[in-house]
Amino acid sequence: IVLTGGDDRLWKTWGFPDGNILLTGEGHTDWLSGCCFRPSGTQLVTSSGDTTVRIWDLSRRGCILTLRGHSRAVRGCSWHSCGDFVASASMDGTSKIWDVNSERCRYTLRGHKESVNSIEFLPFSSTVLTSSADKTLSLWDIR
């Protein structure tokens, strides 16, 4: 299964080798910039130009949580390997670490001078890697 998101504001899961669309999700009001599966495979996270991050439940086929807090488009998102945290990177120059269980922002990471374009958790750690339009990479310890 492959997951994609695009300018059509939709995410889609595709089956292979046939390439058929298995599921489609709609709810964002602007382009999708990122999407990835929760490590358990039961949910996914998406980021969008509409400034939100959304959590989707695949069995319910719908959005179960919308995370708001960025002031500009969200450029990327990722899950922590434990499945309890989501990270987001935004054109507002910040990144956020979201606690999925409490449905709140746990940390806002400030330090880049321009748009934060990508974010990834290092596997099985409390370290986050961000890249920015200011031509820097940053490693963050989110403990």
TrEMBL record:
Name the InterPro entries for this protein: WD-F-box_domain-protein, WD40/YVTN_repeat-like_dom_sf, WD40_PAC1, WD40_repeat_CS, WD40_repeat_dom_sf, WD40_rpt
The WD repeat ranges on this chain: 25-66, 67-108, 109-143
Please list the coiled coil stretches. Answer: none
Pfam families recorded? WD40 (PF00400)
Keyword Transcription, does the record have it?
A: no
Q: Which GO terms describe its biological process?
A: axoneme assembly
Any one annotated GO CC term: axonemal central apparatus
Any idea which UniProt keywords this protein has?
Repeat, WD repeat
Official protein name in the record: SPG16 protein
